[in-house]
Amino acid sequence: MEENKTLLEKIKDLSIFDSFKIVWFIMIFVVIYYTLIAAP
Fold first, then answer.
1. Each residue's pLDDT tens digit, 14-31
2. What are phi and psi of 39, to 5 degrees?
3. Quick one: what percent of the chain has pLDDT higher than 90?
4. Rounded CA gap, 37 and 40, in Å?
5. How many domains does the chain contain in total?
6. Bigger pLDDT: 12 or 24?
7. pTM to 2 decimals?
8. Which residues constitute the domain of residue 1?
9. What is the DSSP string of 1-40?
10. Exposed, middle or buried by CB within 10 Å (0-12, 13-18, 19+), for 9?
């Protein structure tokens, strides 16, 4: 049971990290997109 709990916590941490990475990618993409639109 304890092992399962730690595994669940690990998965939770991973999912949070993945979501944070996705947010970072979206932010960078938006910044590049805006710069491309604002440049011309």
1. 788 888 888 999 999 999
2. -60, -55
3. 35
4. 6
5. 1
6. 24
7. 0.50
8. 1-40
9. -HHHHHHHHHHHHHHHHHHHHHHHHHHHHHHHHHHHHH--
10. exposed
